[in-house]
Specification:
There is one protein chain. With about 90 residues, the protein is mainly alpha-helical. It has a domain of about 40 residues. The protein is about 40% helix and about 5% strand. It has a two-stranded antiparallel ribbon. Strand 1 and strand 2 form a beta hairpin. It starts with a helix and ends in a 6-residue tail after the last strand.
Length: about 90
């Protein structure tokens, strides 16, 4: 697959990139090389290869949720710098 300079200019415009003439000269063959490599990869039979999101298998390291008794209101407010009734008092934020 060959990509033309006009197509590179179009993609650069869509990406809102301002490229110099030298950059167009450099990037056009580089993009062609990338597209040729992708064509080679597309020749591989991947029908029996499962899709992956990571190179190694991952498992969830979190523990299961368990319902446990609360520590209670008095213990919760015990170290509060300032409290009013059953709530924390915090500085006003505007």
């Amino acid at each position: 697959m060959k990509i033309s300079r006009a197509e590179v200019e179009h993609v650069a415009k869509l990406a809102r990139l301002s490229l110099t003439e030298d950059q167009y000269t450099i990037f056009t063959p580089q993009i062609n090389n990338i597209l040729e490599y992708i064509e080679k990869l597309n020749e591989l039979d991947t029908a029996n290869v499962p899709p992956t999101s990571h190179a190694i298998p991952l498992s969830n390291a979190f523990r299961e949720d368990e319902v446990k008794p609360s520590i209670g209101l008095d213990l919760t407010l015990a170290n509060a710098p300032e409290k009013e009734g059953s709530t924390f008092v915090v500085p006003r934020v505007i």
